## 1
Amino acid sequence: MTEVLLFGDDPSDYREVPFASNLAVSFPTDTAGFLRFPADGHLREWTLTYDETLYVIEGELTVTGGGRLVRVAAGSACFIGAGATVDYQATAGTRAFFVIRPRVNRRRP
């Protein structure tokens, strides 16, 4: 089970995110929050519709995508651009802070 807490939520109100694809729908605007993996966790492959920055507070998060595997240890961060297809895995006890910024299609004047 992977739990997500958005800024402003009651800290006792973590909730399970059953399908990673729901994340794109759930965050239509700039969003920040926390991920917590009480047990070894796996968010299966999906394509991000937003830019995401992850900072691992404790534990380790592994991000796989585009033929690359990146291990993000406690005290480290990674950036994942919109359009990337990724797969996340984390060890039990991993906590991370995330910032999501949706891509806005803007027309140049």
Note: The two ends are 46 Å apart (CA to CA).
## 2
Amino acid sequence: MTTRKTVWCALTVLAAAVLSGCADASKATPVSQTFSFSGRTLDVRAHETPTDLVATDRKDIKVTLWFDVHGTNPHSSQTLDGNTLDLNAGCSGWADCSARFRVEVPREVTVLRDGRKTDLRGLPE
């Protein structure tokens, strides 16, 4: 077998292995993180990742992430800098990933989504 055929076969097998299952965030184990928050307005930036925003009786902010990855190079982060909550989850290269966030905020906080006012969605658990 030529080197070109060997490489092609290896890439085909790798692609089949990576794509043999589709990532599904609904089947992922949730991971939560809380942030102290005393502000009156919160700007949530989720970079096009589906995100439920929920008003609750909490005094802090709780972020829950469901993240399923088939492949390599996954990355996720949740950071609060001032009144901006930055949520990131994704993957690169030969990978399929699916992510979903849920953000629980105190009822009295005004919530922005990417700088624009939004209604909170979802129901408290």
Note: The longest helix spans residues 3-19.
## 3
Amino acid sequence: MVKSVVVLQGTLLEGAIGKCCGAPARAPLTRPEAEEVAGLLKAVSDPARLQLLSIIRSAGDCSACVCDVVPAVGLSQPTVSHHLKVLTKAGLLTREQRGTQAWFTLVPERLDQLGQIFA
């Protein structure tokens, strides 16, 4: 173990190891927790979905109409609807029907959960 530290001394990896090993103990993920996190990561692993989340997050009330996000991402309406459905199924967005338009709202707690994965 000491040899590894000597080899890594002075590298960026040394700082990462120090931060990781010096961090307070945290219980490893259980299998159900890992499966839930994997589902979240899978949902956001597409550039269009990340862009959609960003657009909705930047809206004043963290919600947007599907009719507004379609032109912003430059994809067809069916494709955008599919991506929004995936994000909704993952719990990152909620969907509300307002007349003939679908509105999507960010679920901040779920987004925070994504951030905690690597904290």
Note: The chain is about 60% helix and 15% strand.
## 4
Amino acid sequence: MANDTGRVCFLMHLKPERVEDYLAAHETVWPEMLEALTACGWRNYSLFLHKEDGLVVGYLETDDFDRARAEMDRTDVNARWQATMAGFFAEETAPDQTMMQLQEYFHLA
């Protein structure tokens, strides 16, 4: 989905019984993963969680989300991170492939 604002919001779904494990895994995100995200154009990146049902809401800013995702897909660290995270998510695929991007329809600057 094209986005000319630079702001991106997406949803993903955790297995409710794995929420605490997922949070623990994010207490120390690998430095090389953080470096790759930055190098690939991910800025002001936040993840939010509704613990009761495992809903994850992601927000980031980037010049080109499709390009930023494609660049991350080409990194070894992302492949390793996604494999590590896969067991936490409800969908049976790489978590970064399950992102459901939301359409921005209002913004107050």
Note: Strands lie at 7-13, 43-50, 55-61, 100-102.
